């Protein structure tokens, strides 16, 4: 059987030949009313574990949409182990969408001293992550954590994960140098994270703390001032190009 | 005299000690009503030719704002010679803003076969470029041309400028390889351009034409599908990091 899906959907359920997956309310609405799918229409499903599967849309009752799983289309791949740890910014939805396209494994919002956004709407961001994953052909959705105070997050930093912080004060080595060193140290496949500050940057106490951390490396992104979201995306793109899965 | 400008402004006029520059209507409004500047307030001025200068705000009459130029703050630098040639997309303003931050020298919109945007508002985009230049600490504003048909633009391609086109069909070498080759060929400082298609990608005739051009190189950006604007920004960031002025 060949599948020509117009739609990719992330599901929680396990995927295997013959499985019947219940579409969520949002997915049912999307398939019925946006895509105007008919019974038998092809979709592609992924769950972050079992690869990508072709499935057929079925309507067992008026309000339910079922996805009848057929053949595996792609084997599951492993997303490179890079995180984005970021102070929420005004354009947070944009940031999350782009970071998802650029293949981050996890997104961790943190409240720094100068963060002006007081609250992160996790449900909404999570929907954005899912949609960007579906559209970008990812086989997984990035993990998205609840926003935490910056210093709490640092205190619980996982062993063995390098932290690259984007140092807008000019204290960091150029990113090409930093990534070349990671390559030379055969450190490429080690877990890492990029950290970006809020619109107003890190404050002095935060920079001091970062500079004392043995697992943290300051990184520079050239002579211009980049907005927080631009810096995050630029750094992720460079990392994927030189250490990640674009190589 | 020391200057602590809160505002950077792009001006057309020549800049030299003692010059009096007339603020544009928009700048006068911004200084008076948004920044609530008082006489004597510091601003920084640049024009893309004479470096960055400190100046003082003056109000010679009720509706006029004059900028009295004092000392040079920074020497003019040369922006790396990279262009972005792009099919207009829905998020064109975002694309232009980010490309400006990432230091492109020129922005050239082109209409490809699958471009769905019929018209580019040049005045509006130009204002976006200027604002992004002011905020990103650039000493120049990118050149922005009127949108032209894609094949016309290719036909008038300038000699000696390499064209990297983002090939979403997977036909390109990974960008790290392409940039490493440019470095090895000592081609780094040569003029170049990145080309991105519209949301629906290039059509076959466009890809065929691009593949026949001796000055064009297809470039790949990994296994995920990137939106047009994400691809453009990712490619520019990688280029600046490895061949441009982030090195």
How would you describe what is shown here?
Two copies of one chain form a homodimer. By secondary structure, chain A is α/β, with parallel strands linked by helices. Chain A folds into two domains: 8-74, Ribosomal Protein L25, Chain P, CATH 2.40.240.20; 82-242, 3-Layer(aba) Sandwich (Alpha/beta knot). Chain A is 30% helix and 24% strand. The first copy, chain A, has seven helices and 13 strands. In chain A, strands 6, 7, 8, 9, 10, 11, 12 and 13 form an eight-stranded parallel β-sheet that branches. Chain A has a five-stranded mixed β-sheet with strand order 1-3-4-5-2. In chain A, a hairpin with a 5-residue loop joins strand 3 and strand 4. The longest helix of chain A is centred in the C-terminal third of the chain and has 15 residues, at 228-242. The first copy, chain A, is elongated and about 60 Å long. The model of chain A has no long low-confidence stretch (mean pLDDT 95). Chain A binds chain B through residues 77, 94, 98, 101-103, 135-138, 174-176, 220-227, 230, 233-235, 237-238, 240-242, 244-247, and chain B through 77, 94, 98, 101-103, 135-138, 174-176, 179, 220-227, 230, 233-235, 237-238, 240-242, 244-247.
